[in-house]
Amino acid sequence: MTFYYFFDSKMNTESKFSDKHLIQALKAGDEKALGVFYRENFGKIAHLVLKNNGTSEDAKDIYQEGMIEVITQVRAGKLDVLTSKLSTYLYAVCHHKWIDKLRQQNKVTDLTWELEEEAVVILEEEPYEQALEVVMSQIGQKCQELLRAFYYEKLPMNQIAWRLGFKDDNSAKSQKNKCMDKARELAKEILRTFNR
Amino acid sequence: MINDENKTEQIDRYLDEEMMPAEKVIFEKLINEQQELRREVEAQKAIRAYLNKQGEKAELRRLMEDFHQSINQSQREELKQTKKIDWTYWAVAASIVLAIVSTWLIVKENNLPSDKTEIRTGNQTEVFAITMLVWETNNDKRIKKQETKINTVIINDLTHRFHYRFTNTLELYWNPLPKPRPQISLEYDNDTRRYKLWIDKRPYFIQKTDSILPL
Lengths: 196, 215
Hints:
The structure holds two protein chains of two kinds.
Chain A: E1 2-8, H1 19-27, H2 31-51, H3 56-75, H4 86-104, E2 116-123, H5 127-139, H6 141-152, H7 157-164, H8 169-193
Antiparallel strand pairs in A: 1-2
Helix pairs in contact in A: 2-3, 2-4, 3-4, 5-8, 6-8, 7-8
Chain B: H1 7-15, H2 21-33, H3 35-82, H4 87-109, E1 119-121, E2 125-138, E3 141-156, E4 162-166, E5 170-174, E6 184-189, E7 194-199, E8 202-206, E9 209-214
Parallel strand pairs in B: 2-6, 3-5
Antiparallel strand pairs in B: 1-2, 2-3, 4-5, 4-9, 6-7, 7-8
Helix pairs in contact in B: 1-3, 2-3
């Protein structure tokens, strides 16, 4: 884990959810709470990006990337003991992401921090995740769809067979096993290089 | 030794904690003894976690596009209000009113879901009527025999991510809720006696059931 510290001095959220309730609601998949949180905070991030060499499209991209990162962390319980407001935390994540983007484009600027409260950003180390992305691209589009339908959507085999055009449940199942065999073999090699 | 053919399923059963205690003990012993197997279990676990994370991210991205559109919409409305009203705006407004009225008339005429059939209460539950087409095959030709309405309710349920219950009405359990007004319709095939539910152009086979089943 990497920690980044920020200081925020003018933090003021108009959210009707207290952060504890907000975090609970987001964890439970409350779409309304997420919508309110999204709409309330975009202005601050848009201001930050537009003032620092960015376009409104950049602002939207950075904001959504940051939001996805924050919501994923909320759902994983990583922000249960958050010491700052969630909106400050979101600002900090987007701030960090925008600095990164500017650096990649060789446009490093002294990015202003316009909030009062301190925020500690947890940035996940993702080398293994990036490697998995490569693995998934190696097994092909259809295998990815098949595995996603089975493991994420948890669809029954007859629906997977229907959706992906297999002749019956058994062919879909056997193909699903082959896809996972292939992905597992490739991922195993990556684990080896990571010495795990 | 584990049979290669069943390895994926066996590891899944281990990760899903579906093994009987005795089998689990033997499997864990093998994991401890065989580094290769340990890596395979780790790899499969990582792939499953990756698939879940990517799936969640894709769903979040879709939701956020909807939220963003509503921000753009309100910004456009604010912009409109600050502009001086002239006849162009009146003309646009008049054509919008005309479009709404004529759409309403067409909707009414075709007996499609009226304003009372699509209600989202506090973003929690949505009630509406969907079209069900009954098909039959006659001389290799698919013929529409009947068109009816099925009362449908979308329920935001924390324990069921994407499930249904189908009696006289159709209940769709969704978490998180889909984007507003998903395209939903139902088909029944008189020959195969199967129901096919279409959600945003994706088909799902369903059956009449008193229990809540996955879609």
